[in-house]
Amino acid sequence: MDVRTSIVWDYAPAPESTDHVRLRDDYGLFIGGEFRAPQDGRHEPTFNPATEEPIAQIAWAGEADLRAAVAAAREAQAAWAALPGRERAKYLFRIARLIQERARELAVVETLDGGKPLRESRDIDIPLAAAHFFHYAGWADKLSYGIGGRACAPMGVVGQIVPWNFPLLMAAWKLAPALACGNTAILKPAETTPLTALLLAEIIQEAELPAGVVAVLPGDGATGAALVRCEGIDKLAFTGSTAVGRDIQSAVAGRGIGLTLELGGKSANIVFEDAALDQAVEGIVNGIFFNQGHVCCAGSRLFVQESVADEVVSKLWDRMGRLRVGDPLDKNTDVGAINSAEQLQRIEALVAAGEEEGAVRRSIACDVPDRGYWFAPTLLTDVSPAHRVAVEEIFGPVVSVLTFRTQAEAIEKANNSRYGLAAGIWTDKGAKAFEVASALQAGVIWQNTYNHFDPTAAFGGYKESGFGREGGPAGLRPYLRVS
Ligand code: NDP
Which domains does the chain have, with CATH numbers? Predict the structure, then answer.
């Protein structure tokens, strides 16, 4: 008898160890260079979205704590600004080096608290956070060169509110330029992801930054709203939803304080028929499934030239079938957990609305753990530009496919959005890429790649995606008074 053994080729589990992570059970507020209990004693747990288990208790800041942090920041600001730029730079270099030293631990904690795959927190979030501190350390003694040779002074005390999709990286985007320019800062991390900001506070302590130069005050939306309205803030920087950005803009109106808003997006990823299609498919996958699609510049509107639409959709669907969804700590995982139950509900509701409006939904088959928040990577076809899934930010692993016939139509459709954060162009023709890029209303445009970030390059939006730039010398300007 001919007996053959069938071999199933699959990945073995490759979980990252968590043994080296030493988290406290309870974190206080970081004010005046030390961790303190909140004045009203409020603590709330932070959860792992992949298991729904609590990780640690987190102090939430109330108004009295905010006032104390602003007072400490005000007291520290003059001396911090008076330091020669090269001395401030030494502190930033130290923070960058300490992030590198604790990179493994920070990556695991980012993944535990936020649900993103370890591969991404280890290879992207944490190295880029260190790179931002290195980059702005280099600018601290060259500020006027970064703003066209003009004289400048720091804004003063800045309030910074960051979201849950890139917790440590967004903190680095905000703190590094602010500190380089001689400001003191109060950082409010997102309710669901406070841990790496608190570890950064430990790093700041270890780097011996003067007390009061940085405060980290976790809390919820009410804490953010109170920070926005707090007396004594000279500038606010916010990354998050357009709705909250609007609320902040009206709250600061008439107060004479600086404001930068980095808001949502519905970015167009445009594939022309002359593109290298296999490469484009990799770019589409990276554009929308990176970080479960919780990315403000995600390529969530995919425009494909009609002549290659069937081929691209077929290749994309085939490639999506090989995405591995599940335990974010597993080094083979491509798509991790959705950040919170609320976000999962938002994604489910919008995708259901898309189906009701006539879009055809395909979600990949995947086994996900029994607990935690999961959403299978999803492809929506037969989408028309008026459908909600083509208009609203889904902020999840969902790509809406639309088609176009000519270059002019691609540009018109791509610009038909109230947002204008990013775009991708896939073509073999350099001149076409430049022509299309010049006509697109988007702050960041990638050619034959997507979701590439670099501390030397400016990032920011047009229209309802906000204003102000972060990264590179352009990122210094919002933190300086220029004369
Ligand atoms: P929010 O805009 O509510 O959250 C961003 C940050 O602002 C968080 O730190 C949040 O605190 C804080 N915040 C919330 N309300 C206020 C307020 N009134 N005043 C000041 N700060 C406030 O985003 P959500 O978490 O609610 O996500 C909703 C949608 O926003 C997503 O589905 C996505 O479409 C979009 N979004 C876009 C982001 C981007 O990078 N552009 C990032 C995050 C979300 P807390 O977390 O404690 O509520």
Answer: 26-263+465-482 (3.40.605.10), 268-454 (3.40.309.10)
